[in-house]
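During the reporting period the student researcher (J.K.) took over the structure-prediction task from the postdoctoral fellow and processed the backlog of single-chain submissions. One of the processed entries is reproduced below for the supervisory committee.
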Amino acid sequence: MTRSHPVPVHRRSPILYGSLGLLAVLLLAVFGFVLWGNTPARPLPEAVAALEPAPDLSVTTEPWLIFQPDLAAPTTGLILYPGARVDPRAYAPAARAIAAEGYLVVIVPMPLNFAIFGADRAAEVIAAYPEIQAWAIGGHSLGGAMAARFVYQHPQAVQGLVLWAAYPASSDDLSGWTGQVTSISGTLDGLSTPAKIAASRPLLPPTTRWVPIEGGNHAQFGWYGDQAGDQPATIDRETQQAQIVAATVLVLGALR
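J.K. obtained the following structure tokens:
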């Protein structure tokens, strides 16, 4: 009599199941982050309107948001990095007002709306405009921190840094940098709080100009509505924006 042999049962290893489960969780997390990053705070109507060209000002939306005065060719430029998960168009009114003073202004969209993934993008802008003789770079919140990182990594590429409710990371010590630096902040900012701004002083040059906006908050550095964790401002957005623009123009004027 021939004995039948049992068919072997191949059991999957618990380690394999665990690895597949971990991979699924990671994929879901990545997908969720991409979806989250691609749903930024939307620009207010005033910001969208600021993208319209004027007889003395050209506005281009590709590959960056570019504001350029037409009456005279500018020789000084400003590169702006948006805040985290903020539509870059939300900074169009400020960019337009700065450009009206005779400067090229370029707002740089970021991968997944996080400047941390595109801190070096200013180099592309600088290369695209060889006629610009002096550059400043700036940004709002995380955008400002990444602008500071660009300066730290490329200290000769720009001559000015403007921080809008922002400060450098502790690893990006600019205290010895010789360029023009201005830190603009709101006294009611609930995110880049006055205490955090004050703590950044050792990371910036001793010649840094500090501009606190009384009654200003975090969200009013752009035109995108309220922001979780922020405090209510006691001045309106137009008043805060006017002070931001004025302080930024002073930096650019010093570079001319």
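The committee noted the following: The chain has a mean pLDDT of 91.
J.K. will present the remaining backlog at the next meeting.
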